[in-house]
Structures are given as C-alpha cells and as structure tokens.
Design a protein that fits this description.
globular; 46% helix; hpI Integrase, Chain A; mainly alpha; 3-stranded antiparallel beta sheet
C-alpha cells in the first residue's frame, strides 16, 4: 500500500458512501498495488465520475514521484530490432527513427507513407500533440514495404496493447539469449526518449526537438537537455571533418566511425568526435 494511504481510517475512505454501492471504489483504489502514477490517475478518474453524477468525496493524497527515463545505447536498440520478427522489428525501427508513440504508429495507414520521397505523416497524434511529417531512412522504407497489406493500417488492426504484449514476450527471450538485462528496460516509449535525447545532442536546438516530438509546450521537452548533457558530458565537442564524393570514399569514412552531416555541390560532409 502506498505511503499516502498509511493511517487513513477505513471509515474515511468510505465516507460519504457507507450505504452506497459506490463505497467499494475508494477501498479498491486504496488496496491496489499500483504505482503512484496509476493510483493518481485512478483517483482523478473517480473524482471526475462523481462530479459528472453530482457527487463528491474526500480523495486521499497521492504524490507522484517523477523519474528520469532510461536511455539505452543504440547497440541495445539494434540488438532488439535484429532479434524480433518482421512486423515488430519494423515497428521498433519506425519508433527509433521518428519517436512516434506506439498508439500513433498503430494508427498509421498506408496512405500516410510516401515511398518515393521516404516520408511518413502522423495525422492522428496522441495527447493533443501536433501532427508531424518525417523523412525516414531507405532501410525503414524497405522494411515497411515488405509487410503484408492485409489492412488499411500498416501494422494491422490489433490494438497497441496487443503489440506491447507480443514485444514484451520477445524482448524477454532476446535479453535471456544475449545475457543483457538492460534490454528488459526498453519499452516502446523508451525509443521516443532515446530519439529526443540524441536529437538534442546532435542539434543543440530544443525548439527543433519540440517540433519533432509534436509537443505544444517546451516544458515537456526541456528534460532532454539534462539527459543529453549528462550522457555526453565527457565527450569532446570538437570534431574532425572529412569530405567524400565517391561510393568508395563514403564507405571508408563510415567504416572508421564518421557520421554523415550534409552535402553541398555533390560533396558529402562527414564528422567524427576527436
């Protein structure tokens, strides 16, 4: 039982519903072994329900402790993608590149994908977010194109909770096989946190990250400044810059750890931290 309920008399939870069938709800809320966040949501929902029917209650206090999200390495994410089946692997790659919420990805339709221009549009954003459009990799486009088109939705008609269950079962198997317990900490939403952290590290532009995530308030995005600065604080901000304009030259730079930055006048620019 959460600490905010310790010492609360049974009668206090029932009041003013001692003689009403509704008295059971406060007791159930108090006894569940929920996280503080889930208990807080249950209390808020019950309060709104009572307000709707013209009743009130004295809700118990519930203090939610906010935690910093787990940020995995890209190698851990790629290990999960490599070990999953075709549809789940494609979903993970999509979340990795776009930071979509899994509910948004579940609602993605084939019409939202421009295979020629490699863009994906989110027109059904969750949590009152803004709609977004993403430029994605050729790898992701190929993975999506290989999926069966048996539904108007890219990932089928099953709800997001079913996709999560399938993923958690596979994740447990992969973590055991690779002897890597860190993989068990990677949920679908973890990839959103990872992408936002990497984006801020790469761009140092919090407004760009805010737009990428679809946030309407920058207060929801500021978290990623702290995460990026902490994770990369020991890395130098100085780079070695190289250019290439042939497939062989590009391959050689990528093989030694250089990252593509941009191209101009048919010359590609790469950089690597010193």
């Amino acid at each position: 039982m959460a600490r905010e309920y310790v010492g609360i008399p049974y009668q206090a939870l029932l009041s003013p519903f001692e003689n009403s069938p509704q008295h059971i709800v406060p007791v159930v809320i108090a006894k569940q072994k929920w996280s503080e966040a889930r208990r807080h949501n249950a209390i808020a929902c019950y309060t709104l329900f009572l307000r709707m029917i013209g009743r009130t209650w004295n809700p118990p206090k519930c203090y939610v402790t906010h935690k910093l999200p787990f940020i995995p390495t890209e190698q851990d994410i790629d290990a999960l993608i490599a070990g999953c089946g075709r549809k789940t692997a494609t979903l993970l790659q999509l979340l990795k590149e776009t930071a979509m919420r899994v509910g948004e990805a579940s609602e993605l339709e084939w019409i939202n994908i421009d295979f020629e221009n490699r863009t994906i549009t989110v027109n059904r954003p969750e949590k009152n977010s803004n709609p977004r459009i993403f430029k994605v990799s050729s790898k992701l486009i190929s993975m999506i194109n290989a999926l069966s088109r048996i539904s108007r939705k890219v990932f089928g008609d099953s709800p997001a909770c079913y996709k999560k269950t399938t993923y958690y079962i596979t994740r447990k198997s992969i973590a055991k096989k690779l002897q890597n317990p860190r993989l068990l900490e990677i949920s679908f939403h973890t990839l959103r946190h990872w992408k936002a952290t990497m984006l801020y590290h790469q761009t140092k532009d919090i407004l760009y990250v805010m737009r990428f995530l679809g946030h309407k308030s920058i207060n929801n995005t500021l978290l990623y400044i702290q995460l990026a600065e902490t994770i990369f604080k020991e890395q130098s901000d100085e780079f070695t810059v190289k250019t290439a304009n042939t497939p062989e030259g590009i391959k050689q730079l990528l093989e030694v750890g250089f990252e593509y930055v941009c191209d101009k006048d048919e010359i590609l620019y790469f950089r690597k931290r010193r």
